[in-house]
Every structure is written in C-alpha cells, then in structure tokens.
Design a protein that fits this description.
33 strands, alpha+beta, single chain, 11 helices
Length: 632
C-alpha cells in the first residue's frame, strides 16, 4: 500500500511543479505582450523567452517570439525559435513547418528550407507551399553576388529616421528624397554636391513643396523644372477628383527659383483610390504611377498616362509582365525612356520587397520583369530607386542597416548585363533670330531619321531653355515650331563625344513675316474670356459666338481657327491642358451653330502670345482667352 501512496505523492508533486511553472510562464507571457504593446521590443523579447523557458511546450509563446524576430528582420533568431517549437510542441513539426521554412529562406538557408518544404508540405495549402518552394529555389540559385556590395550614403543624406524615394535631374548634382520629420510626416529634402563632388547642404524644400499633410513620394523631371509629388489627406467637393493620396505637380522657372504651389492632376488621373509614387519620361510627357483602383491585377499596380494633344490621357495598366497579384510600387523610368525600375513583393525574390527591372519593347509592350540580384536585393526591404545618367550607378532605399522600416539610401554599381544603354543630353534655348528675344513655350519634337517622334516638349517658361536626354550614337532631327515664326528642322549627330558633357544646341527661329509677305489673311471675329480654372461657356458667351458667326453663314471658302491661351498662373503643362480643353469646348460650340462644309481647327497654346501683363488680375484675365478667327 505504501508504494502506491508514495507514487501518488510523487505525481502530485510533479503536477504541482508543472502548474507552478505554467503560472510563471503565463505571467511572463502577459508581461511580454504588455511590453510589446508599449513599443518596448527588447523587454518584450526577454520576457517571452523566459515564458518559453518556464513552459517549453507552449506553441503560443513560440509563435509570438518567432514573429517578433521575423518582423524585426532577425531571421536567423526567428528560424531558431521555430526550430525549437517544432521539436518541443505537440505536433510541432507540422504546426510550425510554414513559419520555419519561411524564416529559413529569409535567413539564406535555402537547402534547409527545401528539406522542410519537401517533407512537410501539404496538399491543402499547395499554392502557398509551391510559392515558398519557388522562392527557396530562387534564393539557392541566385544568392551569389552579381556586383559589389552597396554602400550607404553619407550622414549628410542618411539620418536616424527613414529616408526614401531618391531622384535626380540630368545634371546629377542634386539628390531629392523624403525624410521622416518629427516622427510623423515625410517631407521632401534635397542635397547637393560641392566642388569636390561631396554631398553637402541638405535642406528641407519647405513650403509649398511640403505641407502639413503627408508627402509620401516624389520625382523631379530631368530638366529640373517640374516636381511630381504624392500628397495625402486630400478631399475635393465632388469626392472624385481628389481623395486620400493623390498626385500633384509643382513648377519652377529656374533651378534656383521657388516652387509653385503643387496642383492636383484632376479626375483623369486622381480618384478616390490611392494614386502616388510618380515618375516621368525624359520629355515629361509620360506619367507612371501607382494605384490600387479597381480593374488591376491585385494590390498596387503601376499605370501610365500620356500627355497627347494637350491632354493627359486615361491611364493604362502596364500589364502582367510588370504587375502581379502582389504589390508593385515605386516605379522609376530611366533617362533612356525604355528601362523601368520598380519594387515588388509579387515577383519571386529574396524576401520582403525587391527591385526589378524591365525593358520596353519596340511595340510598346514590356519584357518580363527581372530581379536585379544580390547584394542589391536582400531578404530585407529594398524599394524606390533611381539611376545616374551614365547608367552605371543605382541609388535606392533599404532597411538592411537598421530596424525594419528604418530606411537609408544606398548607392551601388549595377550588374553589367542589366545596365541601360548610355545616354547624355542636349541643352539649349530657343530665340528669335532677328531681335534675339527668348521664345518661351516653343514646341520641340525629337525625331529619328525614320520620322519616328521620340519626344515632344516645350521650351521653358522662364528662360526658353530646354533639356532632353537621348541615347548616344544616333542621328536625330530636332523640329521646332512657334507661333508667328517659320518652323526649324535641325539634324544633329549625337555620338560618344557627349558621354561626359552635354551637347549645347541653341535654336534660332525666323519670324514668318520677315519679308512682310503673308500667304493667308486672318480676321479676328470673336474673343471669349474665361475665369481662372473654368472650362465652361456661359449663355452670354454662346450668344457672342452665334452673333459673330452670323455674317459668315453664306460663305464657304474659309477655315475657322480656334486658339486658346492662358495666363501664367500655375505651371505650363497644366496650362497647356487647360487651354486645350477650352479650345475644344469653343470649337464644339462653333460646330453646333451649324455652318456646313467649314473646317474648324482648334489648338491650346498655353501661356504664349500674351496681350497684357500677367502681373495684375486684369491682365491675367485678358490673357485667359479663346480667339476665333476666319482664315481665308
């Protein structure tokens, strides 16, 4: 009898000891969760480790600790936690197979991960298992370095807070980026090179480029005159033209001038969904951006809108070669106008978000995106990139050197086989050949000898300058047009001598009346004035048009020209779009009046051909006009 009593006593002691251990484990577990909620991760991890030590069979404690290590990008420690959980918990091998395999992949232990996947993968979750197997095979195959390790940029750029979204103009003398301010909002900053090519003078761009709201991502146009920004917290009266995060555009007349107040693109591009992370083509006529609007492939997709005939066209999804069911973000169009860099967690990579590259084909479609490789991409998060003009050096953001989410900007030399073709740029200004005055907003077209138009842009509002980046070793035709002047066609040979320095090419234009010979006769019959940002005709305006055209009802041998102009408020590109819309509206009203067999030509000219000063409201109103002329 006594042996049975002794055995019962021993069992009670063991149970009492286990119960005491379980209570202590639960106490440590609760404290760990409180420290985690209080954003004290170090203390939380220590308490959770003590909880596991007191009760090494608790799957919940292993799950929490393993995920905490993983979220902190401590992948090796996370893998060790899930390995112990597999060994000590009931059904642990199967229960922790997925997180164990995943952390092994991120820790760079692809062979061990494949062993776990191949032995424990289940049919029920075959899609997820297959995705992990594919990633493990990728890490095993492409985990060797393809270039020298990236280098973190100096403390003049990187700081204890996150820096993201580097971009630069063609001179590569200034890097623009975002930085977290007061641990709340991101603002736009810039840093320039000194005479020794060292980065210095980091400065906040200030108002109006920055606002009290969140600025998430930006890019600067190659000529340095346009800033495309993402701004959040927006609302519009119609609830559609703006909402949440949208794309805005600011302008400056010179690189040392102040930025204008950023203006939204409007409903053609912005919607109540997310729109942001813009990048533009070298001629600023293609806008690439990110949106989660309906009709995509899932998550965030990359879209493009083209500025054609004075208007931003409806955005087009870049398609399955670029976009996936995951998230594609932070696009960057290289200055060769065919190489697109972007960030993705949907394409197979090393873990987290990686940087990918794709080339645009001659038919406008895209090659299947390619991971740019290790050690630029890692198991950490790499995102938001841009490239120097020579195509050799890549600038990008990564959180590899700090806690998860605390990004710094790095520079790296691109692998040789992924470098874009070398480009340089042509710079100059447009002027009147007789009186030497600068011709701002002149239309410039860059064509090949096959008459393919590569770029279309305008000379700068401020000084009539222009900058365009072009691939080397080609011959180009530069076609220039300006109201009241004869068109100019220049042929330039753009070869390797311009690799280090740009081609300087100023364009002289001869006035069309230089001999006082006019082949045509224009008669101004009506002028319609518009209030700022208005694109609708009043009933009074319609009456003026009808009365002006009445005397011409019986004639047929003429053409009606409708030319729209704006003041210089805002920025030139949006003014061109605004004038194009006004010209189209007036031309439609003229057509509706019903003169049969008459050609109606309409065009928006933007800010050129002013009739009054833009320094006063009266003058600006006089310049906001549409002229209707009879051309015989």
């Amino acid at each position: 009898m006594r042996p049975k009593i002794l055995l019962l006593f021993c069992c009670l002691c063991i149970c009492s000891s286990l119960l005491a251990q379980s209570k202590k484990a639960g106490k440590f577990y609760g404290k760990a969760l409180k420290y985690k909620a209080a954003k004290k991760p170090g203390k939380a991890i220590k308490k959770m480790a003590k909880s596991i030590n007191k009760d090494p069979r608790s799957p919940e404690a292993y799950s929490e600790l393993g995920e905490w290590y993983f979220d902190a990008h401590k992948f090796t420690q996370a893998a060790e936690v899930f390995k112990n959980a597999s060994a000590h918990c009931q059904n642990g091998a199967l229960r922790f197979a997925k997180p164990y395999a995943r952390t092994l992949i991120y820790a760079g232990q692809a062979d061990k991960a494949l062993s776990v996947i191949n032995s424990l993968a289940t049919i029920r979750d075959s899609v997820e298992w297959n995705k992990m197997r594919q990633q493990a095979i990728f890490v095993k195959q492409y985990g060797r370095p393809v270039c020298q390790p990236p280098v973190a940029m100096s403390a003049r750029i990187n700081s204890p807070v996150p820096e993201l979204f580097p971009s630069m103009a063609v001179d590569t003398a200034t890097i623009y980026f975002t930085r977290r301010v007061n641990n709340e909002n991101d603002d736009y900053f810039a840093v320039s090179k000194d005479t020794c090519s060292e980065w210095y003078n980091t400065r906040n761009l200030g108002y109006p480029a920055n606002s009290p709201e969140q600025e998430l991502a930006q890019c600067i146009s190659p000529d340095g005159h346009y800033l495309f920004v993402t701004r959040c917290g927006n609302r519009s009266e119609d609830g559609f033209a703006e909402g949440g995060c949208d794309i805005f555009m600011a302008y400056r007349v010179a690189n040392d001038s102040d930025w204008t107040t950023p203006q939204p693109f409007g409903f053609t591009i912005n919607t109540p969904d997310f729109e942001g992370m813009p990048t533009v083509s070298p001629d600023t006529r293609e806008l690439y951006f990110v949106s989660d609007r309906k009709g995509g492939y899932g998550g965030y997709d990359i879209y493009v809108s083209r500025f054609e005939e004075g208007l931003w066209q409806p955005p087009v999804n870049l398609g399955p070669a670029i976009n996936t069911a995951g998230n594609e973000t932070a696009p960057y169009m290289n200055m060769d106008n065919k190489t697109l860099f972007f960030t993705s967690d949907g394409h197979t990579g090393f873990g987290g978000t990686d940087i990918f590259v794709s080339q645009r084909k001659t038919d406008g479609s895209w090659q299947v995106a390619q991971n740019i490789g290790y050690p630029i991409n890692t198991a950490y998060d790499e995102k938001s990139s841009c490239m120097a003009l020579d195509g050799k050096k890549l600038y990008f953001a990564s959180d590899r050197n700090g806690p998860a989410g605390n990004y710094d900007i790095f520079e790296a030399y691109m692998p040789y086989d992924l470098r874009p073709d070398p480009v340089s740029y042509i710079a100059g200004y447009v002027y009147d050949s007789l009186n030497k005055s600068k011709l701002t907003s002149a239309s410039i077209y860059i064509c090949t000898r096959r008459d393919d138009t590569l770029y279309q842009f305008k000379s700068n509002r401020g000084d009539a300058s222009f900058i365009v980046t072009l691939p080397l070793n080609n011959t180009y035709i530069i076609h220039t047009g300006y109201m009241g002047h004869l068109d100019v066609n220049d042929t330039v040979v753009f070869d390797k001598q311009y690799t280090q320095e740009p081609m300087i090419h100023n364009i002289a234009m001869l006035p069309s009346n230089w001999e006082e010979i006019r082949a045509i006769s224009d008669t101004l019959i009506a002028t319609v004035h518009f209030e700022a940002n208005v694109t609708e005709l009043s009933e009074l305006d319609k009456g003026i048009l009808k009365e002006a055209l009445s005397p011409w009802q019986q004639h047929r041998n003429y053409t009606i020209t409708v030319n729209a102009y704006t003041d210089n408020s805002g920025n030139p590109m949006l003014n061109e779009e605004l004038s194009t819309r006004r010209a189209s509206i007036v031309a439609k009203e003229v057509a509706d009046i019903g003169i049969e067999g008459i050609a109606i030509l309409s065009k928006g000219w933007g800010e050129i051909n002013t009739v009054a000063t833009n320094e006063t409201e009266e003058g600006r109103r006089a310049n906001r006009r549409v002229e209707i002329r009879i051309r015989r």
